[in-house]
């Protein structure tokens, strides 16, 4: 069994990853730290790279996943400093809910830690990603406002 922590490179995610690390260490589980990039952000980055005259390559999905994993590693290194917990960092491209569900299945995660994202007032009437996850994720979900 594992614990899944979803973080963002914003300084606030350090606390949720630290909480997840403490929980994983106290329950003798491994920790999966993930950074998930929305498909729209990936597409924008691809377009911006394509606009450079000197750029003759492409920004691939593998490159984007590697970059996201590096961001997860940066967050984990800072948040888990001094903690004795086994962890793995992964990067994914796609929708937050779908990728969290995939990661939870792939790594047999029993507990999810994630920041509770602030939503603009005009989006508060649509479905909250956390609500969707709580209906599909069988384990506990711990959130912290960012």
TrEMBL record:
Pfam families: Usp (PF00582)
Domain of life according to the entry: Archaea
Domain UspA per the UniProt entry, residue ranges: 11-125
InterPro entries (UniProt xref): Rossmann-like_a/b/a_fold, UspA
Name of protein: Universal stress protein
Organism, scientific name: Halocatena marina
